[in-house]
Design goal:
The protein is α+β, with helices and mostly antiparallel strands. The protein folds into four domains: 190 residues, DnaJ domain (Helix Hairpins, Orthogonal Bundle), CATH 1.10.287; 196 residues, no CATH class; 168 residues, Immunoglobulin-like (Sandwich); 30 residues. Helices cover 57% and strands 11% of the residues. The strands form three sheets. Strands 4-10-9-6-7 form a five-stranded mixed beta sheet. A three-stranded antiparallel beta sheet has the order 3-5-8, with no helix packed on it.
Amino acid sequence: MSEEAVENVPYYLMPVAALCGTYSLIAGIKAVHQVYKVSTYNAEKTIIPPAPLKSKQFVTLILSIVGSAVAYGFICAKVNNSLASAQVFDPFEILNIQASADIAAIKAAYRSLSKLHHPDKGGDADKFQTINLAYKALSDATARENWETHGHPDGPQTQTLSFALPDWLLHPEGNVAIALLVMYLAMFVGIIVYVFKFVTKTEDDIKKRQWDNSVSQSDMSYLATNLRPDSTHLDVLFYIATSPESLEITEQSMKKMDELKEARSEFLNPSKKKKEADTFDFADDGGWADEGEDDAAAKAAKAKKEENEKLAKQVAMASGKDEIAKNIKIEGLDDGVLGQKWVERTLESLGQWPPKFDETCNVPNMTFGNGKKAVSVLDHRAARRNLCMTLGRLNALKLNVHPELMEAGKKNFIDPTYFKATMEYRQRTGLLLEAALRVAGSVRSYRLYKTIVEAVSMFKIGTSDALSEDNIMWFKEVMQRTYGPLGTPRVIISDMDLETPGEDEIATEDNCKLQITLNRTHAESFTKQKMAMAQKQGIPPQVVMQTYREGWWILVRCKKLDGDAEVKNEFLDKNPLLAALDNGSKKHFAGESEENRLLNAWPFIISNIAQKEGKVNVSFKAPSTPGKYKFMVDIKSQEFLGCDQILSLEKEVLDKAEIERKEAEANAEDDDAEADSDDEDEEPKKSK
């Protein structure tokens, strides 16, 4: 290889080839991932779809992949051609013969070297191939002409494109090796940084999801402060709708909605967007300059504004927002699209909007900070939205079958910024209802606990009244149509007993156990219908069995039948959950009568749809005042309407101090009797 030929080899292009190849690989993976996201996109779960494959972002990505791949092939071919031309092919030197050697000497040298370098005899395959080419160049007329004309027996070795991974990238040398090493190290560091950011973002997303799916202390305090023993079902749901974290989450959702509205508006009115961009904006020009002030500041501000607008446009293109704006339809911008305003109008026609607050509810008198001034609950957009979604859910039976909504659904004229947000709100409300139950359990309020459980069933089923005879009758008819004549959900108590484990009687402050045997009369009907549905839809039966859930509550309280019992309220001060309660709030719960004071609220979940009978043990502490008591047991469903029962049993609660005193006296008498017996045994021995 001559020095001149070596100098003509473009070594500087080798790192460029490596860069183009690496980019093609990484960008290709990204493109495949984008195709995967689009193909697996579920419109029911995500409001904002991924950037579509027809977006400028994806087309640009594909073009960059093709461009970088072509550049890689072109550079590899160029470098390979230069390296090939730099190699001088001399068959006489390869065969180690003179240039004047005849054909016999050529054949003899070829045979000798072939035997020595044949791969079957441990020789080098590349060396053997070179020997074959040298013999071909000297023994074949066409090959010799190619060698003499083009420098190689096979003719010109020039490539246009080469996509194979060349040896000079796998085993670089000299400055090329150093350049590639630096580049690979930089890429490695970049990958580490990307992975770190990805992991950090993932952790932040997990924390955010946990935050979105948990109840904050501020919400717990808010509920504890506002809920009362006589709070109604709507009171409970309205407080949940206006809790601090719930409002904040809704406000964040509405900010995203504003961005989509703006993008949609710009898409529908491109001329307006251009006109606004061409119009001088006095509000954003930094104000009037003082006399003599340098114009450089104004020019810099204008340049900065133009740069921000350019960047915002690039971000919109990269994020696919332009494509989203084309596909999404929003109430108020697109004719015939239904959203929150339609829900409010329909609720108003049903007499359900604006909300009808009970006299015990503080929500209508609340004000919320909104910028510079405080506003009422219906003027606060997040609170209004939450209240609308609450009442929309409670009137779902009428809204879901409304002709206008059904027609809009067929045309895909449903505003996703509202209706899909209602799904997230329902999940969040479920968590807050559980939090409200914890509050009611902490203050031991039977009335509040009962009301919240009924509110849970109202919100799940989508009815505005859990106690209405009409609603209960409707619910039973639906159950019977679905599951048959015996399909009305019902839990019957076949046996019930109360005792102190290991004792013959119940004493004050004992840890009692209420043993209940339950029978689900609807088990067989539910099982048959669910199995038939699974068979019809081709779902494995075990899936139906595993995913079934049926929630019930057992609420236990008591009433003294022979006089008044001592009511203790120390738990109101000791429970850390109630630390936020002021004295006024505590008085509401401290004033509860004995029969409205919970001894325990015990949940049980039916996870086996076919289970007909089961036993439940409810533990609680016996009353602190001795006497005859009536223990009342409520069986309440958080899934069904009109399935509740109230049963009772009477028990005598003895005075533990009196029992312990009698036991001590009895033990003392036994000890004295034993001592006297010992003395009698010793007297005959002394007489002997």
